[in-house]
Each structure stands twice: as structure tokens, then as C-alpha cells.
Amino acid sequence: MSHPMFEKHQALLTQALNVIEERGYWSPYAENSKAYGEHALEEGRAAFEAYRDAQFYLDQPGMVKRGGAEVSPYGLPLNISYPMCQPDALIAAAGNAMPPWIKAGPDIRAGVCIEMLARLNSHSMEMAHAVMHTTGQGLLTAFQIAGPQAQGRGLEAVACAWREMRQVPEKSRWEKPRGNRPPLRVDNVYTIAPRGVALVVGCATSPTWNSYPGIFASLATGNPVIVKPHPSVILPLALSVAVARQTLKDAGFDPNLVCLLVDEPDALIAKEVAAKAAIRIIDYTGGPLFGEWLEEHARQAKVFAAKAAVNCAVIDSTSNYQDMLNNLVITLSLYSGQMCATPQAIFVSREGVQTPAGNITLEQFQLDLAQAFNVFLDNTARALEILGAIQSPAAVARIAASRELGEVLCESTALRHPLYPDARIHTPLLLKVGVADSGAYAEERFGPISFVVEAATTQECLSAAERVMREKGALSFSVHTTSAAIRQMAEDVSLRAGVSLSLNLTDGVYVNQPAGFADYHATGANAAANASLIDSAFVASRFFVLQSRRPA
Asked: Less crowded by CB within 10 Å, the N or C end of the chain?
């Protein structure tokens, strides 16, 4: 059985599968804002402004009232109200929508999902402003991460899911010889059976990039999805749900396969919903306490949880000292350290950093890194775009509370945005501590806070980094070295700690910007996350195979 949407997108799906096998560079959706039209940014701004001081419309069952309390980290009140629906009504509607979606099969589901992504791509500039004014990301950063890069992750999930499902034949003939007697013959029919209703719990800092893999992996494998955004970051996922529902309608399916579940900061409902027997899949990105609660209490569901991370870097030696410093500065400044793979602990030996110009002492390295930050901040317009704004007031308070943890190498100061004077913008705080001060650097301190950790030798740096990553979890591990022996040690640490390794990154490649179709984000092998984006286990765990057999 074919469908126009599958036929429309079949070539793109095939291309995605080929790239996944090769794991090279590919961006299926344009990452240059100019590709969306000469006036796309302003048109996106106008579309975003139309949502402010208005009601967001979604025709969903079980609505009891309207709510929403988003305030832009740039200081703008949004005053958008969303339908607030009874969870049981959404769950029931999602379950009722399942049978035709299951019977449609992998091809049609994949085609409809990719059509959703194509339509979301056309809303990329609108999404950029929505994400900017809910998460605090700079506009162009929000456009790339929440738009084409998130859409690419969604396509990757669909392609991986389609590949896993296509490995199951639709039917087969089983035939067993019996010598002179006629063979035994059985006809088998195989059906992809989804787990059931999926719950996606969105995060406050990267709502689409972190949610699209779960949303589209579940939809492609036949599961309806209830999307529960963070109460302070609703609009990006509300837009996503609205596009998905309209696409389902146009494709001839029940739009209640995708629903939005909104709660309020003083009346959170994620625990209540996650524990319901009808919820069979949960995707979560956020703090460790709720992630661990889900793993412990939502036993009826398959839980995919990305939690806290204490990412580490080790600086041993480099062939390009200034480029290494510049790369570190941008890495630590991207979205004010609110990216889950940003390094927090930077280990450096008292023996210094070996460079082509000679040995740089630890003290000089600290001065040079601080100076590199000053040069970066001198270009105010560029710094404001890269830093963005801090999503939560709690992160601003965390900066102040962290100053006493070590010697201040770079003070965090507030910056004034020329267009948004009330924006929460703060430069990174860089502290110096000793390797024994693990109470300071070995706890996740989400935001623009990082530590230069002094150790006796590079070997001690690697040992301390391994201990932290194994105990606390990590999503990234970066090492700068020109030594083959140190490189081998770093690879061994990576393997034992279950964390991906980046070596000698300079220029425009940053450890906290994983690329879709090439990089696996998280491994599932340490405490930071119990799954990887996106591997076979992430998608194949969302469905079962049912077999029906009868004599031929």
C-alpha cells in the first residue's frame, strides 16, 4: 500500500539511510538563513509576534481551561495562553487513533513523518524567534539548532526506525522437508506492533533538538505521542504539535496521534502522567532527580532519559596553541554553557602545556585563556549572539553561588543587550581549583560556570577526569595532546568511562555541537544518559513483532 507522502519523500529517506551508514557530513535542511528568503527573518519575527498576547489554538479533546506563563529571558512578557487538557482524555484519544496508524505500515508512517519535518522546515524562522524568546538562545543559534538541525535529528530518527522495521519481512513461507512425505508448509505474517502511548517531556534549553528524536522515533514505529513541554518553554513544541496535527489530518489520519499536554510551574503533572499504566514510552531530557525518579517509578514504560553530565577536558599539549584557546572560549561561551555537552572541568598539569613555541606554564595558560575570553567579549555583537540569554533565573543565582568555590580567573559580568535591556546575559565564570577540590568541579553546575583543575601530571588529569565521568556521567570528553602515549591513555579512559572522545578540536568544530547523521549524542554507557541519539536501540525498543502463522 502506497501513499503520496511516502512517494514524495522516498528519495530523501533513501539518501538519509545511505548517509547514516557512511556517517559523513549531511544537512538535509538548509542551515543558511538566506536560503529561506530575503525577508525570512522579519517574516519569522512577525509570525512570532502574532502569538504574543493571544490564544494558541489547538483542537484537542479534554480541554478544561487555558494557561501558560512564559516570559522571555530577553525580558519580554509573551502572554500566550494554551489549551490545558485532561491527561486521561488525551491518552484515550491517542489510543483510539492508533489502529489505522498501525495498519498503515512503516512506509506510510515514514512518509507522513517526513512531510511533518518538511512543513516544520518551512516554519524555521518562526521557530527561531519562538526558541530565542523562550530558551534565551541567540537568534541565529536558535534558527540553526531548533530549526534545520533539530529537523535533521527528526529525519535521522525516522530513517533509523524505518530501517529497523524493514528488516522484518511482511510475510514468509516456512517449509520443512520430510523425506518421502510432503513437506510441512506454514505461511507466516509479521506485524510491527507499537508499545503504546509515548510521553515526551521537553526541556527548557533545547526543546526541539532534544524532543524531535523521541517524537519521530515513536511516531514512525506506530506509537502516538503526548508532548509535555517545560512550563517555561511551551511555544516551540506547541508549534511543532500544531504542524504535526495538521499534517496527520491532511494525510487522512486522526490528529490525536500527537497532542500537547500543558502544565504550570505551580501545578506540575509530569509525575502523575508518567506513572499511568497507559504510558508505555517516555523520552526525557533534564535534571537528574526527575530522570532517576522516572527510571525507578515508571516501570511500566520504556524510559529514555538524558540527565546530568559533568563533562571533562584535559589539556596536555597542542600543535596550535592560539586556535586551541579560541576553541575553548567559544565552546564555553556557546549559549552561556547551557548546552549539555559543554565541558565543565578543564584539567591541566602543573607541568604546563607543551606547544611548538615551548612549554607554557600553568599560570601562563590561565592568563592566556582569560585574555582569550577578553578578546572574545570585545566584539560585543558577536558575543551577545553566541552567549544568548540565560534561560532560568536559577542559573543566574548559581553563578553568584559558585564564586566562592575557587580562585576567580574570569569574572562573570552582566552584559546589556541594545534591543533588550532586561535580558539575562552574563559572561562565563572561570574558576581555578585543585584536583582535590572535587566538591567544586565534580557536581554539575549548569550554566556559564567552568573550572581549570590543577593536577600534578597529565596522567593524574586523566585519572581524575575518568573518576568524575564514571561516577557522575558525561556526554563529552575532550583532550588536547600531541603525544601518542597520552592519546592512547585518553582512548582507554573514553572506553572505560563510556563517553565519546574528541581530540584536538580547533577551528569551527566544537565538542558541544554534535552533528546529525554523523555523531552519536550520548552513549547510554554512563550515568549521564541511558540511551544514545540515535542508534538502533533507541528506535527498535519502541516496537514488537507479532507473528501470525497458518498451514500453507
From this structure: N
